[in-house]
Write a structure and sequence with these properties.
This protein is an alpha+beta fold. The protein has helices at 8-20, 22-33, 43-55, 67-71, 139-158, 180-187, 235-255, 304-320, 346-359, 374-381, 404-422, and strands spanning 59-64, 87-93, 103-108, 129-130, 133-135, 161-163, 167-172, 195-197, 204-209, 211-220, 273-279, 289-298, 326-336, 365-368, 385-389, 392-393, 401-403, 424-426. It has two domains: 8-209 and 339-426, Zn peptidases (Aminopeptidase), CATH 3.40.630.10; 211-336, Alpha-Beta Plaits. The structure holds zinc ion. Zinc ion binds next to helix 5.
Length: 427
């Protein structure tokens, strides 16, 4: 177990600085969780981060995502909402001495909806710590990580050092639905020698993830009175048939996992989620329409066009097997490929050393079968993407929470990584 080239005295001072700032870090995390930054309502959370980065003397940038720029990029996803109030925030640290490797510290500020709030033990926007866990929507995914980036950066200077390479602290939107926020940051010109994204990853490094496509199918049948139900075509019944046909394709793709490096032992890596459904007009009318929103996953190394064409073929087969039924298909969000983090990079070695120092154990890697913005940096920026972060429970569910001690250790890892990767000099 190597702990890298970092001077033990420097490392010890940085660890102590993370610990000394940790209560303030938790309070700031709770303030950020209190901002209900669901899609298109990220502004108050972004305001808080903009101010916090500005107070630290970073040079601040804030901009709206440009739909035309996203549309024209191969990694862009279809845009289903107005982007007028949707802004990214980046704070840039420019070193006095520039001799090290540059770094992006990225995180997303958007959170998914809460679902029925009466199923939560407390308000999803009230970030209490109970038995070592901080609760709240977005606590794990990923405001604790977003704030860990900021306080890891603080710890270097609190310990009496200055990083010797540029550092870009990014708070992006649109991670939970398109990935267009990180893509917009890349297209604005923010590149670096590595990126860390502290998503909730169980104190581990993501080796590979899946691509994701969102689409909607509007199924149209034929209305009628239930007394002569057979004269109608029930669109809700037809959606259940469509969903089972998509499940067959999902199972076929899961059966191919042995052919995809790193996915061999993963339990059901390919999941098609039917996330929203609505249709019909009246209990006593055969419904003529029903819409279903689908999230489908596919393996890295498969192009998004190829995956989409297989999905479309499945939809066409399903439609043509059902007389009197029409499918109207539309892409509604993610149109994103997966990626694999190449083994043996200098960035991974530096992270492994920092992790070993912070945790006293070796860094483990794993496959996560969900979408990650790491693909933006990896596929379109050629930047090693280290997606690595704390232990969480119930993300995208009720009573989401993040493990506080894990957050402290991950913050320590990130701070030590900054020192190792960017280099430091005395303030
Ligand atoms: Zn996330």
């Amino acid at each position: 177990m190597s702990t890298g080239t970092l001077d033990p005295t420097v490392a010890a001072r940085i660890v102590a600085a993370v610990d000394a700032g940790f209560d303030r870090q938790l309070r700031f995390t709770a303030d950020l969780v209190a901002q209900p930054s669901v899609r298109a309502e990220e502004q108050s959370a972004q305001d808080l981060l903009y101010a916090a980065m500005g107070e630290r003397g970073l040079s601040m940038d804030r901009w709206q995502i440009d739909p035309a720029q996203i549309d024209s990029h191969e990694g862009g996803s279809p845009i289903a909402i107005c982007y007028d109030d949707v802004t990214n925030v980046v704070g840039t640290y420019t070193p006095a001495t520039n001799t090290g490797r540059s770094l992006i510290l990225n995180g997303h500020v958007d959170v998914v909806p809460t679902g029925p709030e009466d199923h939560w033990a407390r308000s999803p926007w009230d970030a209490q710590i109970v038995d070592g866990w901080m609760y709240g929507r977005g606590s794990g995914d990923m405001k604790a990580g977003l704030v860990a980036n900021l306080f890891a950066f603080d710890a270097i200077r609190a310990a009496g050092f200055a990083p010797t390479a540029p550092i870009y602290l990014q708070s992006v939107v649109e991670e939970e639905c398109t990935g267009n926020g990180s893509l917009s940051a890349l297209l604005r010109g923010y590149i670096a020698d590595a990126v860390i994204i502290p998503e909730p990853e169980e104190n581990m490094l993501v080796r590979a993830n899946v691509g994701v496509i969102w689409f909607q199918v509007r199924v149209e049948g034929r209305p009628g009175h239930p007394r002569e139900m057979d004269t109608g075509v029930n669109a809700i019944d037809e959606v259940t048939i469509l969903m089972s046909n998509l499940r067959v394709l999902q199972d076929e793709w899961n059966a191919q996992q042995g052919a995809h490096p790193y996915f061999e032992g993963v339990h059901n890596p390919i999941n098609f989620n039917f996330g929203q459904i609505h249709g019909g007009d009246w209990p006593s009318s055969v419904p003529s329409w029903c819409e279903v929103q689908v999230r489908a996953a596919f393996y890295p190394g498969t192009s998004v066009d190829n995956a989409w064409s297989q999905l479309q073929q499945c939809l066409q087969r399903s439609e043509s097997s059902r007389p009197g039924v029409t499918y109207l298909v539309q892409r509604t969000g993610f149109f994103a490929e997966g990626y694999v983090l190449d083994e043996g990079s200098a960035a991974e070695a530096a992270l492994a050393a920092a992790h070993a120092y912070a945790f006293g154990s070796e860094l483990e890697t794993f496959v996560t079968p969900g979408y990650l913005d790491g693909r933006v940096f990896s596929l379109y920026g050629g930047i090693p993407a280290l997606v690595y972060g704390p232990i969480s429970k119930n993300i995208h569910a009720f009573d989401e929470r993040v493990h506080v001690e894990s957050v402290r250790q991950v913050t320590t890892t990130i701070a030590l990584f900054i020192a190792e990767w960017c280099g430091v000099e005395p303030l």
